[in-house]
Design brief:
Layout: E1 7-11, H1 15-26, E2 30-35, E3 48-51, H2 57-65, E4 69-72, H3 79-86, H4 95-102, H5 104-113, E5 121-124, H6 127-137, E6 141-145, E7 155-158, H7 164-171, E8 176-180, E9 184-194, E10 200-202, E11 206-211, E12 214-220, H8 226-243, E13 247-256, E14 261-267, H9 277-280, H10 285-293, E15 307-313, H11 324-328, E16 333-337, E17 348-355, H12 362-370
Helix pairs in contact: 1-10, 2-3, 4-5, 6-7
The structure holds adenosine monophosphate.
Length: 378
């Protein structure tokens, strides 16, 4: 067990690191953060902020030597860096888990090999292979780059009548994955935590609504039939056990119109959809993550009240700063800002959590108007 007072090293310095650090500090840990830049979202709330690149093995090794346990909040850390630091200080989740999630093809193959249902896919290496597969499927599909894709980046949609050469050119890669387009009813996620003692907990299911491929709103708990939710949580638990996970894992899934679950992707870390737990659960995803990597007992996951999370992107600053006074004059509203200085369009600047009765979304409309976010039918 890594006791409170010890030093937790977080690799990555964004908002996920920031909120993990806040929870770790709450429990009396010291937090060191590593990543490029200074005065970063995580660095601002940590004891020590090291400005370094993820491929600077010497600097990373020095950083690791100063910590009692390591974790990461950024997924694209080179495998060679991870191998170097794991020899110095324990790192959770294990780099092998991170490696599964770093490459979409490896991830999909892992799901299939371990019996987790996923979207039909093919590895493709040319416009001709894209064309023949889309024609064989006779349905819309999406070309995804194998690495570095997030928030819809690195994705190109194709239809049986598309110009495959142009689509392949815009993907701009030598190898990619082609996925059948899923006509889903809902997008959901499940967050599971497991510690070294083998204790496992899952949060209730999060219902996620994306806009322009970026998460816009999370409704918690999801408005779905109980058996589907139970099945999703069981799937998450079984995945955590199969991976021998220590830490937190988020699983994003599609729910099809006939109630089937298809795993879209996984992330071995806290997740945007779980931000709502910070305000409505006795133990947030961030605290759960800290408890899991330190082998402390895991905490309760059931919410004290239903909640809605709305992301605040840089777009909300287009005509000047949002009116925080109007926002915070509302009841049961919590504002989180990540300490980022330049609000660019599409950049995640913060989020709002509104606890509510689970059915009346009228205040969500008001929050969206204040933040100049387009209306969403809930
Ligand atoms: P991803 O980066 O794979 O999570 O994709 C971002 C978003 O694009 C997802 O949350 C979905 O809304 C949409 N998307 C990705 N893949 C598919 C697919 N095969 N079928 C339908 N929608 C998809």
């Amino acid at each position: 067990m890594i006791k409170p007072g010890k030093i937790i090293g977080i690799i990555g310095n964004g908002q996920l690191g920031r909120m993990s650090a806040i929870e770790a500090k709450k429990m009396g840990y010291q937090v060191y953060v590593y990543g490029p830049g200074t005065e970063t979202p995580a660095g601002q709330v940590s004891d020590i902020e090291v400005d370094g690149h993820y491929d600077d093995i010497n600097k990373l090794t020095l950083f690791a030597q100063g910590c009692d346990v390591l974790t990461f909040e950024f997924e694209n850390i080179p495998a060679i860096s991870l191998e170097a630091i794991r020899a110095v200080t324990p790192i959770h989740p294990d780099p092998s888990v991170l490696e599964i999630s770093q490459n979409r093809l490896g991830e999909k193959n892992w799901f299939e090999a371990n019996g987790f249902p996923t979207t039909p896919f093919e590895e493709v290496r040319s416009a001709e292979e894209v064309g023949s597969t889309v024609k064989k499927w006779n349905t819309r599909a999406v070309i995804k780059t194998l690495t570095l894709g997030y928030d819809g980046k690195g994705q190109t949609k194709v239809d049986p009548g598309s110009d495959f050469a142009a689509a392949w050119k815009s993907a701009g890669v030598q190898t990619a994955i082609l996925e059948k387009w899923v006509d889903f009813d809902h997008e959901i996620s499940v967050i599971v935590a497991r510690n070294e003692s083998g204790e496992v907990v899952t949060y209730p299911v999060f219902e996620n609504i994306h806009r322009n491929h970026i998460l816009d709103t999370t409704i918690f708990p999801a408005r779905l039939e109980k058996p589907v939710k139970r099945q999703a949580r069981e799937l998450a638990k079984s995945m955590a056990e199969k991976m021998n996970l220590i830490g937190l894992l988020t699983i994003e899934l599609f729910v099809t119109s006939d109630g089937r679950l298809l795993v879209n992707e996984i992330a071995p870390r806290p997740h945007n959809s779980g931000h709502v737990t910070f305000d409505v659960c006795p133990v947030s995803q961030f605290q759960q993550h800290i408890r899991a990597i330190c082998n402390l007992p895991l905490g309760n996951t059931e919410p004290l009240t239903p909640g809605v999370m709305i992301n605040i992107l840089g777009d909300s600053w287009t005509d000047g700063e949002p009116n925080w006074k109007h926002l915070l004059s509302m009841d049961f509203v919590n504002l989180h800002l990540y300490g980022k200085l330049d609000p660019k369009p599409g950049r995640k600047m913060g989020h709002v959590v509104k606890s509510f009765n689970g059915t009346d979304f009228s205040d969500v409309d008001r929050i969206r108007r204040i933040l100049k976010i387009p209306h969403l039918d809930l």
